[in-house]
Amino acid sequence: MTTIEDIDKEKLPRHLAIIMDGNGRWAKERGKLRVFGHENGVKTVRSTVENCVKLGLEYLTLYTFSTENWNRPKLEVDTLMRLLVSSLRKELKTFNKNNVRLNTIGNIASLPQKAQKELEETILKTQKNTGLTLTLALSYGSREELTNAMKQIAIKVKNNIISPENIDETIINTHLYTQNLPDVDLLIRTSGEHRISNFLLWQIAYAELYFIDVFWPNFNEHHLAEAIKNYQNRERRFGKTSEQLN
Ligand code: IPE
Ligand code: IPE
Ligand code: MG
User: Fold this and answer.
1) Which among 94, 152, 155, 201 could bridge 142 via Cys, Cβ 3.0 to 4.6 Å?
2) Does ligand 1 lie within 6 Å of residue 217's CB atom?
3) d(CA 39, CA 45)
4) Buried b (16+ CB within 10 A) or exposed e, 123-160
């Protein structure tokens, strides 16, 4: 079994993003409520963050709650928000011990006040940390992000701040939630689903995709190490030929 220690630290993905999926099915398999799956999913978040710290990763982005997830039953949404608040409270110490800086992407203003306040505080209290940047995607939707970016740019064009000829990838990037993050190198989705579900559409243009048929609460160090090892054996050509790279 591959472990974190087996990984070549010279060829790490700079930015790892994960679609943490399968909490509900994990719980259902055990005859429990979906909420039980989310509670156990939080434990996997904790161990995954720790493993990424051990590895020395620079950026980890976790798809925590999508714009579409608001359409779930109220009880489930409320539980997820409550879990967010209690986890942040519990993890602050560990973040600081592990030099983790918290960051968010998404429509944070749409979250309950309590969650917004807890996020604000945790971000503030970890802002000087220089190790892993942990980004939680909360009320995040890629289409909403791109729509907002287009709106902001259109307003700047209208007000003569930007001229249309100058709109380039850099300008678009600076209008995204992810303006301070590098492109995603490796995207992992758990649970066996093979889809992106409105996550980081622009930012994964050249990411390596890795799908694993394991529910999120069961995702462990070996699965993570295996995914990174698999990534390290791929040739990222970015449109060039293999010969050009060698
Ligand atoms: C992922 O697990 C967690 C969130 C989307 C918040 P799910 O809740 O989607 O679990 P499944 O996919 O229904 O099993
Ligand atoms: C994607 O999972 C969102 C998160 C992991 C937060 P979903 O379970 O919501 O995705 P779909 O609905 O199966 O595509
Ligand atoms: Mg799901």
Assistant:
1) 201
2) no
3) 10
4) beebeebebbbbbbbbbbbbebbeeebeeebeeeeeee
Instruction: List domains and CATH numbers for the chain.
Output: 14-140+183-232 (3.40.1180.10)
Handedness of CA 32, 38, 42, 45 (dihedral sign): positive
Question: Alpha carbon of 42 to those of 55, 80, 106, 217, 219: distances in Å?
Answer: 20, 10, 19, 8, 11
How much is the pLDDT for 246?
86
* Residues, CB within 5 angstroms of ligand 3 (ion): 21
Task: Kindly identify the ligand whose nearest atom is closest to the C-alpha of 81.
Answer: 1
Residue 85 to residues 13, 82, 122, 220: CA-CA distances in angstroms?
Answer: 29, 5, 10, 24
**Integer Cα distance of 223 and 64 in angstroms:** 19
Cα–Cα distance between 134 and 246 in angstroms, integer? 33
- 41-90 pLDDT, tens digit per residue, is 999 999 999 999 999 999 999 999 999 999 999 999 999 999 999 999 99
DSSP string covering 139-180: EE-HHHHHHHHHHHHHHHHHTTSS-GGG--HHHHHTTSTTTT
Residue pLDDT, tens place only, 226-238? 999 999 999 999 9
Residues designated as active site: 21, 69
